[in-house]
Structure formats: structure tokens, C-alpha cells
What we know:
The mean pLDDT is 93. This protein is an all-alpha fold. The protein has helices spanning 9-33, 36-43, 47-53, 57-77, 85-102, 104-115, 122-145, 154-170, 172-179, 184-200. It contains ten helices and no strands.
Amino acid sequence: MPDDRAPTRIQKRNRAAILEAALDVFSAQGFRGATVDQIANAAGLSKPNLLYYFPSKEAMHNALLSRLLDTWLDPLRDLDADGDPLEELLAYVHRKLQMSRDFPRESRLFANEIVQGAPRIHTALSTDLKHLVDDKAALIQHWIDLGQIARVHPYHLIFSIWSLTQHYADFDVQVRAVLGSEDPFEGAPEFIDAMYRRLLAP
């Protein structure tokens, strides 16, 4: 915003509309393919009006990514050290799958950023994300050492959960082309639950 005054209702509405439009465009076109004109058109605003709120497409992209990273890490944060290990891990799998169903554009935005080398969030990946994953991997290893879940590689377990669940968002077009009229999120939870339950059962 150009000054420190509290935004008006219209300004809040326009800012939200811009970020919603930017999410649509960035998730479909990637950062490099997206333009300010495309985002302005999608938001129903003139380009000068959009630039009043965000001076560049980088500013819009950064705003989306900073909001997204916290959302993306929340399901892993919720892994409870005091819960039943197998059920905690299965609940994490289901939370990640639910995110792919509810936030497909956000998932593709994140994937596009990673594919490009994470130029805008690399620091966060090597600090916030790494510290959280290290902490949860140590928890998983603790459960393994106690014999509460099967002996697996904690980090690769987390990677596999990410890749399997996010596939349904990032490759949505391919999944739906293969399944036809079947909703992928009807069959996926049961299949994924059974697979990880067999893998992790002690």
C-alpha cells in the first residue's frame, strides 16, 4: 500500500481480488509466463489501479508465497508427539491430500516456484521448512526406535507423502483425463490410507 493508513473496505476488496486473480494466473502460467496485464484483466481492474496496490508482479507473487508457506507447513506442524504414531502419520497424509483437493492452485503455485529453483523462497526452504522437517523426522525416528512404527527412512517418508498427495493437485489434468468422470478424491483417501498403513504398521 502507498501509505500507512488503514485500508478502506474497497481497498481491502480490491487487494483480495488482485491476489485471487494473481493466484489463478500464476498457478496456470507460472511466474515467467504471467503478466501484470493478465492479472489486471482477471481481477477486473485497470493496470494502473492494480499497480496502486502492488507495484509489480514480483510483489504479488511474493505476497502469495509468504501466505502460502505457512499454510503449507501447518499440516506437518500438527503432527503430535503425544498421539498414536501410526494414526498421527495417517492423519498427516489425509491433511495433505485434503489440501490438494481444497487448494490446487496454491499447490501448483508452490510447485512452479520449486521447479524454477525456488528463487523467491529458497531462504525459507533452508530455514523454516528445513527446521520443521528436521524436528518431525527426529520424532518419526523416535517412534521407530520405540518400535511403534515400522523402520523407514523418516525424510523419505515425508518426501513420499508430499509427492503422492500433491500429485493430485499438480497433475490434476492428467489424473482426471485418466479417470474420466470419477472424482479422484473419492478413491484416493482409501487407497493411500491402506498403502501407508501397511508400510508403517510395526
